[in-house]
TrEMBL record:
Pfam families: KH_2 (PF07650), MMR_HSR1 (PF01926). Residues 41-45 are annotated as: G2. It is found in: Cytoplasm; Cell membrane. Transmembrane segments: none annotated. Residues 62-65 are annotated as: G3. Monomer. One of its GO terms (cellular component) is cytosol. This is GTPase Era. Belongs to the TRAFAC class TrmE-Era-EngA-EngB-Septin-like GTPase superfamily. Era GTPase family. GTP binds at residues 15-22, 62-66, 126-129. Residues 126-129 are annotated as: G4. The gene is era. Residues 7-179 form the Era-type G domain.
């Protein structure tokens, strides 16, 4: 390929929590780089995935779900989301077909209007597999009255409907440019952080209610072994002493199951053997500690 034909740019995915941003990112990139669960607000970092299509390299910024921030951590997440949108070449606003124009979606549209950016915004009506086709046209009209979207796509990120058209369009939208990343790179997150995200996803799937939002996972040690395997040591930080027992489970069975599931996925992702060691520690104030934010790819905002 000659460099003169290439295109490259950033695409920001915005939308309410659970709109399907991570699912869409994974479908576009064709590999699992951002964690997807049924629970809201699982995405904390500005994870990027890279899709190659035609001669275009499309770099996705998977932002945290945009919602009304209360806690300090939440405010950092929201700031990261809008920061990603403002820097992008294209913004995709995801709306859930069965929920329509919710108050939360309207708040995002209001924020978009105040963004003072010429960045084109496309409307992505996602989860069309969950509604009858008759409702889609009316929903699309209503949303296009609320904001002057450049383009509307109706998709199912999960089933793949409409995703090829969206990818074609994005490939044509990003500006003429040399590629920004080496061809074989699918995520610019360091492996340590991906490994921590994998463990956090497994914890989120196993634990209930508030606890997943009150814990964080860090990869403390990463050792490359001579036989090609990796020895990975991670710490699960919980916010309250009472949570430690819950994460450990009876006789340590919860953390053991989490570790097994996480190890299997890390091995699939990296294509080699992994020895994973998990520890649970209480750190009551972790949500207010500046260094944790840097590790999650977020800015720490001082002052409450
Ligand atoms: N039926 C259906 N479900 C979908 C579709 N796309 C995503 N989902 C589901 O919706 C849920 C949320 O998807 P995510 O991709 O994690 O959503 P997100 O917007 O990244 O969420 P946050 O990280 O909380 O911001 C998951 O259970 C997905 O499986 C779709 O096209 N159809």
């Amino acid at each position: 390929m000659t460099e003169t034909n290439t295109r490259a740019g950033f695409v920001a995915l915005i939308g309410e929590p659970n709109a399907g941003k991570s699912t869409l990112l994974n479908r576009m990139v064709g590999a699992k780089v951002s964690i997807v669960t049924h629970k809201v607000q699982t995405t904390r970092a500005r994870i990027r995935g890279i899709a190659l299509h035609d001669d275009s390299q499309i770099v996705f910024v998977d932002t945290p779900g945009i919602f009304r921030p209360r806690r300090r951590l939440d405010r950092s997440m929201v700031a990261a989301a809008w920061g990603g949108a403002a820097d992008a070449d294209v913004i995709l606003l995801l709306i859930e077909a069965h929920r329509g124009l919710t108050d939360g979606a309207q708040a995002i549209i209001d924020q978009l209007k105040s963004l003072d950016t010429k960045t084109p915004v496309a409307l992505i009506i996602n989860k069309i597999d969950r509604v009858k086709s008759e409702v889609l046209l009316a929903l699309s009209q209503k949303l296009n009255e609320a904001y002057a979207f450049q383009q509307t796509f109706m998709i199912s990120a999960e089933k793949g409907y409409g995703c090829a058209d969206l990818l074609d369009w994005l490939a044509a939208q990003v500006p003429a440019s040399p590629w920004l990343y080496p061809e074989d790179q699918i995520a610019d997150l360091p492996m340590r952080m991906i490994a921590a995200e994998i463990t956090r996803e497994k914890l989120t799937l196993r634990l209930h209610e508030e606890i997943p939002y009150q814990l964080t996972v860090e990869t403390e040690q990463w050792e490359e072994k001579k036989d090609g395997s990796a020895r990975v040591e991670q710490v699960i930080y919980v916010a309250r002493p009472g949570h430690k027992g819950i994460v450990l489970g009876k006789g340590g069975e919860t953390v053991k199951a989490v570790g097994q599931a996480a190890r299997t996925e890390m091995e699939e992702f990296m294509g080699r053997r992994v020895h994973l060691f998990l520890q649970v520690r209480v750190r009551e104030n972790w949500q207010n500690e500046a260094e944790r934010y840097g590790e999650m790819g977020l800015d720490f905002r001082d002052g409450d």
